[in-house]
What does this fold into?
Amino acid sequence: MEEDGNMVWGNGPITSPDKARVEAIKPIIAGSDVMIDLHSTLKESKPFLVVPELQHRLATVIPKLGVQRIITGPGLKHPSGEAIESDLYGASKGALAMTFETGWEHDGKIEEIMQSILDALTHLGIFKKKTEKIPPAKPQNFNLVNAYKQIFAGKNFKFIKEWQNFEFVQAGTIIGYEGETPIIV
It folds into this structure.
């Protein structure tokens, strides 16, 4: 992978196979009502959603995914205003677009995640409801995390330590450096 395929949804030139793939699927996303981009986290983490636009007409599907933590807010946008990530691109085209961070790839919950996605697709009417088993209860309350600023790490970015997902960080803390420039919370 030459580029992060999730970070090349903007209008730049095709400079890699990842960008070419993104350009090929943009028309499909642009014509979609719902887009769920599946990811796994690099370290242990509970699943979470990144949803740029919670006030969408199809947002009733979100509880069916069984995730309690949702990140949303104006800080998801790239400083340029361009939709450079899949969820931002889908939302800019009117879709209920989200990134589903399904948790750590080694946690063995693939069946649970798959069932949550099937529940969501059934709720949307894409699949017919099966009555074989009673699905696990889905959360009714959500932990909404307001993204107020997103940091886009460049090639010279280095964290000062191995941070955990959603680790509490005191305001004023240096979390890393972009070259010689400190990145401060």
Notes: The two ends are 30 Å apart (CA to CA).
